[in-house]
Amino acid sequence: MSLRDVSINVNGTDYQASVEPRLSLVELLRKKLSLTGTHVGCEHGVCGACTVMVDGRSVRSCLMLAVQADGAEVVTVEGLSEEQGPLGPLQAAFRRCHGLQCGFCTPGMLMTLTDFLTRNPEPTRDEVRIALTANACRCTGYKGIVDAAMEAAAEIRRAS
Amino acid sequence: MRPAPFEYHDPRHVSEAVDLLSSLENARPLAGGQSLMPMMNFRYGQFDHLVDLNRIDDLSFIDVDGSSIRIGAMTRQVEMQEDTRLAESVPVALEALSHVGHIATRNRGTIGGSLSHLDPAAELLAVSALLDGVVHLQGKEGKRSVPIEDYVVGYMTPAAEEGELLTSVDWNPWQGDHGWSFREFARRHGDFALAGAAVLMALDEAGSIARAAVTVFGVGPAPVRLKTAETSMVGEIPTRQLFELAGEEAASLEAMQDAVVSGSYRRHLARVLTVRALEEASVRAKDEKK
């Protein structure tokens, strides 16, 4: 199979890569660009662990080909705070509210909620729970995650 | 887990895509990828050529023109959710869209992909059946238009010929005051519905039913319009008893069964959801009249 060149901006940095067309976006991020913050779980679009933002909208990066992201701006969990800087408001709320235990699902949770809170800055707990049906967590029972989303939403509203 | 190797094509125009699909062996068009990519990752689907439609701008549009709506195949579900004209003229479709998968899948998933994949529980397929949808296909031999009821020939089987591409769908929204309802049951929000029902209903000045459309989906291999109920309800005063007769028709449909969900449970859900949807639509139709 012939290789294709891909130019992609991830968290503000431009990258070039030559990839097989069948390479998924999540594999490009993790294996070629060594951005391992994005996790990959089910690889068929069910668990939500691999969720990233592409051109401002959340997508499952296991269901998108790397070649389809040519020219796109991608934000991953690494882009939610400055390197060595303080956590972003959503991340800080997750830590405060025990929104994670093992942490495997957390990058996807954070990216789903980043998209959701942009569209719905004043959500109810039920709306948060519906949004989170997109992501599976096997540890927390979700309560801490919902708490974190509600606290982060309030904090983001106060700050804006 | 990754797809079997394929040659990748990303045409910019519909005609190029049609040429590729009709000339290449074992080629498959790729829309939003929310069903096809999982199948390829599992290698249920292995293709020699993938024709990616995501860079064809001409396939992404929503035209609303008084009495008709045309939606391009590559229009994403989120774009439909954000379209205020659709919210105004087909609120039933907006309610349906809120049940389609999750935020991240609606950001990629397209109406054309949904109408090509033809999952029996697909909400956009149910709405297309409810709104007397017409699918537009383009192939090497030219273009043709097929009503939804002829287009869905069986379980996940469209009437499209090899190499034919679905380019858009027309919906025929009802004019004038009417009520609507969209009900489905899934174990978890965004999962495939085990059953669902969608209804449109208009009342006359006397409060009798002037027109009704009822679609039951997720029960059999394809969505079904309850033609007997639609006809027999006209001229009747909307009552629970009348709606239960429609529920009987829904409960007599052919129902799929699998290891988890029995056919009789699906038929039970079809009955209950049909009655509830009819009741909700009739209440809304009455409110519209006030």
UniProtKB/TrEMBL annotation, chain A:
InterPro entries membership: 2Fe-2S-bd (IPR002888), 2Fe-2S-bd_dom_sf (IPR036884), 2Fe-2S_ferredoxin-like_sf (IPR036010), 2Fe-2S_ferredoxin-type (IPR001041), 2Fe2S_fd_BS (IPR006058), Beta-grasp_dom_sf (IPR012675), Diverse_Oxidoreductases (IPR051452)
Entry superkingdom: Bacteria
Transmembrane segments: none
Domain 2Fe-2S ferredoxin-type stretches: 4-80
Protein name according to UniProt: (2Fe-2S)-binding protein
GO molecular function annotations of the record: 2 iron, 2 sulfur cluster binding; metal ion binding; oxidoreductase activity
CDD domains listed in its UniProt record: fer2
Swiss-Prot/TrEMBL keywords: 2Fe-2S, Iron, Iron-sulfur, Metal-binding, Oxidoreductase
Automatic annotation (TrEMBL), chain B:
GO terms, molecular function: FAD binding; oxidoreductase activity
Gene3D superfamilies xrefs: 3.30.465.10, CO dehydrogenase flavoprotein, C-terminal domain (3.30.390.50), Uridine Diphospho-n-acetylenolpyruvylglucosamine Reductase, domain 2 (3.30.43.10)
Start and end residues of each FAD-binding PCMH-type domain: 1-176
Keyword line: FAD, Flavoprotein, Oxidoreductase
A Pfam family per the record: CO_deh_flav_C
Protein name per Swiss-Prot or TrEMBL: FAD binding domain-containing protein
Protein source organism: Microbaculum marinum
